[in-house]
Structure formats: C-alpha cells, structure tokens
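Researcher: We plan to redesign the surface later, but first we want a full-length starting point. Tokens attached.
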C-alpha cells in the first residue's frame, strides 16, 4: 500500500526518487533495474501540451502561491523565449522496476 500511495503522490525531490528502490526492496520486491531518464524540449507548444503549463500557472494563482499577474508574466516570458529561440524545458525522473520473488 505504501508504494501505491507513493506512486500516486509522486516524487517530490531527488531524494524521494532515490529512496524508491529501497522502498521496493522493503516491500519484498527484487530490484530488476533503475533508470533516470531526462527529457529536454525546445518546442514551447509541445511543452505546453505535455506539461499543461497554462494549467500549472492557473492552479498556482488560484492557490494563492503566486498572483495572477505573476502567472501571466511567467507564461509570457516562456512565449518570448520561444519566439527568440531560447526556450528549454527539461524534466527528469526515476523509473524503478522490480519483480515479486517466486
């Protein structure tokens, strides 16, 4: 159950991701492999579609973590970076695979 909850909550930090293999082993799984892929996007429209950047900005503004103006400014700065060819978006993660012992 702990792993299910962990997966639903997602990894918040790199330390969380590194701890995942240990948590799988504690749950009785045999660790098969662990990967740390990185995705780098330079196309703004693809990044907006994949990561829903507009929804992220809207959600942060609605939560009060940032102002609506700051959210709009952030999106505008990303659009401007795309226009001049300097937009970059990188995402990394950890994939851990294991099996149950027979």
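Model: Full-length starting sequence:
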């Amino acid at each position: 159950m702990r792993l299910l909850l962990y997966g639903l909550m997602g990894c918040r930090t790199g330390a969380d991701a590194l701890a995942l293999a240990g948590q799988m082993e504690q749950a009785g799984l045999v660790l098969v492999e662990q990967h740390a892929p990185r995705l780098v996007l330079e196309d703004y429209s693809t990044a907006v579609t994949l990561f829903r950047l507009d929804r992220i900005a809207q959600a942060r503004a609605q939560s009060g973590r940032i102002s609506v103006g700051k959210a709009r400014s952030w999106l505008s700065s990303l659009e401007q970076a795309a226009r001049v060819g300097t937009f970059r978006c990188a995402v990394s993660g950890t994939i851990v695979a294991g099996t149950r012992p027979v």
